Amino acid sequence: MARRKKIYEGKAKTLYEGPEPGTIVQYFKDDATAFNAEKKDVIEGKGVLNNLLSEYFMKGLGQIGVPTHFLKRLNMREQLVRSCEIIPLEVIVRNYAAGSMSKRLGIDEGTQLPRPIVEYCYKDDALGDPLVTEEHIAAFGWASQQDMDDILSLALRVNDFMSGVMLAVGIRLVDFKIEIGRVYDGDFQRLVVADEISPDSCRLWDIETGQKLDKDVFRRDLGSLTDAYSEVARRLGVMPNNP
Ligand code: C5P
Predict the structure, then answer these.
(1) Nearest CA, atom 19, ligand 1
(2) Is the four-CA dihedral 195, 201, 205, 206 of positive or negative sign?
(3) What is the CATH number of domain 85-227?
(4) CB distance 92 to ligand 1 below 6 Å
(5) How many whole angstroms from 242 Cα to the centroid of ligand 1?
(6) Is the CB of 73 under 6 A from ligand 1?
(7) What is the location of CATH 3.30.200.20 in the chain?
(8) Pocket test for ligand 1, best of 36, 46, 92 (most atoms within 8 A of CB)
(9) Is the CB of 13 inside a 6 Å radius of any atom of ligand 1?
């Protein structure tokens, strides 16, 4: 393989300079981390599953007119994406209480929320991605009011799409996190869904049994993460042996 310029190495992915200007190659690693990297492991095959699943979700979003950074999958571990400027926010959408929201507000995990709730966290590993309000976002200039309107609309469209896709295969979309990037077309800025959408960044529960099919399996030592992600892929017809 030709040597490529590494742009950034994150916890689950490495980014390389792409073949054309304005493109990036996203390499999905097998590394799993939780609790801000206090818990770490290598889960063989996770990168392949997340690459395929993220491709599936991003393509589907593109088909319904939700802009994403995805261009094409290159191989089992890599995809070509548009280079974008990531807004330093983790945008979380919740349909049911779970995880940090249950802890923070004392609501039982699995409680259906009266409507989807969107939360923003400031993307900063050293600070543990703290929850922030739109006041912080505006005051510190991380995003404009127009950006926030667009981000909310994107987040809710992703939620509708993902909830429907998962419901069709008997899985409840409890919550998820997305990241948003800015791409520039001449003088115009567009916001796109960036990073990845995979069981690493969603909570997915089997509707019948409540079985967790997401990264909580790793966070909470509930069994095989590969089995859980493979089950999601199998139900969606996205399998490594079926590229
Ligand atoms: O931990 P918490 O309950 O806030 O997570 C909400 C959702 O966002 C979960 O689906 C989790 O997997 C995802 N998330 C993420 N990356 C983070 C924090 C949360 O993908 N850094």
Answers:
(1) 177
(2) positive
(3) 3.30.470.20
(4) yes
(5) 29
(6) no
(7) 6-82
(8) 92
(9) no
Pairwise CA distance, residues 110 & 234, whole Å: 24
Token pair of 149 as six digits: 């309107």
Ligand 1 contacts CB of residue 99 (under 6 A): yes
From-to residues of CATH 3.30.470.20 in the chain: 85-227
CA distance 106 to 113: 13
Q: Report the nearest atom of ligand 1 relative to the CA of 201.
A: 20
Structure tokens belonging to residue 91: 């945008």
- What are the residues facing 85 on neighbouring strands? 182
User: Quick one: 6-82 is in which CATH superfamily?
Assistant: Phosphorylase Kinase; domain 1 (3.30.200.20)
Over its length of 243 residues, how does the chain's per-residue pLDDT go in tens digits? 567 899 999 999 999 999 999 999 999 999 999 998 899 999 999 999 999 999 999 999 999 999 999 999 999 999 999 999 999 999 999 999 999 999 999 999 999 999 999 999 999 999 999 999 999 999 999 999 999 999 999 999 999 999 999 999 999 999 999 999 999 988 899 999 999 999 999 999 999 999 999 999 999 999 999 999 999 999 999 977 654
Q: How many angstroms separate the CA atoms of 28 and 46, rounded? A: 8
